[in-house]
Amino acid sequence: MISFSVVIAAIAAVVVFWFFQTSKTRQYKRIPGPTGIPILGNILQLGKQMHVQFNKWSNQYGDIYEVKLGTQRTVIISNPKWIKEIFATDPIFSGRMRIESFEMYPNESMSLGIVSSEGEFWETHRHFLLKQLRTFGFGKSCMEQLVLEEVQEVIERFKKTEGKPINDLKTVFILAVINSLWTILTSKRFNHDDPKLHTLVANLNKVLFDLAERGGMLIFMPWVGHLMPEWSGYNKIRKVIEDNKSFFEEAVNEHKENFQEDNIKDFIDVFLNETNKTTDSSSPFYGERAEHQLVATLGDMFGAGTDTTSTTLSWGILYITKFAGVQDKLQQEIKTVTENSRNVSLNDRPSMPYTTALIDEILRYSSITPGGVQHRATEDKEFKGYLIEKDTWIFPNLHHLHHNPAIWGDPETFRPERFLTEDGKFKKNENLIPFQIGRRQCVGESLARNTIFLFLANIFRSFTISFDPSAPEPSLDPVGLILTPQPFSVVMKERS
Ligand code: HEM
Q1: For position 191, what pLDDT does the model report?
Q2: Hey, whose CA ends up nearest to atom 20 of ligand 1?
Q3: Which atom of ligand 1 is nearest to the CA of 438?
Q4: Confidence of residue 47 (pLDDT cuts 50, 70, 90)
Q5: What is the predicted pLDDT for the residue at 52?
Q6: Domain locations in the chain?
Q7: How far is residue 18's CA from residue 38's CA, in Å, rounded to a whole number?
Q8: What predicted TM-score, i.e. pTM, was given to this entire model?
Q9: Cβ–Cβ under 8 Å, residues 216 and 49
């Protein structure tokens, strides 16, 4: 029988714990937020479209509020100045959560790749990646050439439809976007019908789909995956991650076999060159872990770069076709600049303020990563009088920021002109941050912006697009974790 003194000791321990816990937070303002339930927290209140509920809570609680995703403490920030401040400077707010179930190398002592790694290891590899991407093409004419080859292949594919409806735009774009990224990273280009390219696309789609369908629960309650691996979808997700890993490992092994120090062709070569030179075992480029890091980085580039860019392109086609007058204005500007006698190139962009404004409006209106990508507080830290405790996840409410009437006036109207001055020059708005901001800001922003510009401008130079009259009116309501248009069908009429 439990003795009376044990009960008293247990009560005393709870009181002492409670006292220390509250004295830690007593000096700070209380972060408001909805009440949740044990274990599940606020998950059941979220519904299928998390961002809709997050926006409601932002309207109710204001600049900052707290929710529990399962047992995970999470703060959501909606104040634009605070979003910039919290992500810009302080390394304490630049961590990431570790979710081994989704990692290619869950047995490593830390998360690898760029998206999920942290600290000095992340900083070194992020810096290296950005430098090499600049060398191998981001923002350069060779990259532009690669993207234009993909644009041309897509245009040829559309021409072959001869005015018949197209209903798989997203797949067409994803093939093209993956291929240009593959060429930059591995110096190999596939034909769009190549089975190897289709396998790569199918693998990536499977990972993204399974993460969207089943990943939520495994992110917020990872223990469910270990307790019920079949039912929770954990086994299925692990299988596609392993398949994907094999694909990238094969590319790395091929490069290792053909490696020539005096003939560095692409990102994989330059990375291998760095690891070959490294003898210091404490270096982030040393040994087997560095090779795993290379594979995980390739996985991250494809995971983070392909669905996002092709989804934005799909929204672009949908909005430009749907909203009155937009297609005419775009085509008029293309004609003024190119006389419709040549491809639109990146050099034309400064003379195309309407197209530039249109792309910013597409990014704002779609806000495909509505809560951005969450950061982790690596230590307890005060922010604006609130205590952000260690291991809290921090979400910027980008959708709310991009649809806030106090900032945009008429956010639910699709109006590229909001990014133009009265005399028609492009006007940047600092409150548009689809690639997030600060220390972890998206590394693919320039590639994504260039790709979207070259695709949309050259497609609308070649075609006038309308919706398939025999299909239902396309919906503007998104689906998925990355906000994606529901399938829609268009007809492309070649322009003379
Ligand atoms: C429209 C297209 C895209 C959108 C909207 C987008 C959005 C984002 C966002 C919101 C983040 C989170 C930043 C943070 O945590 O602070 C991010 C990170 C990242 N993005 Fe993108 N992205 C796009 C395209 C790309 C492309 C084309 C690539 C690669 C080629 C890419 C690679 C990455 C990587 C590697 C990270 C992780 C950065 C880090 O943690 O240091 N993204 N992106």
Answers
A1: 83
A2: 442
A3: 16
A4: confident
A5: 94
A6: 29-494
A7: 18
A8: 0.92
A9: no
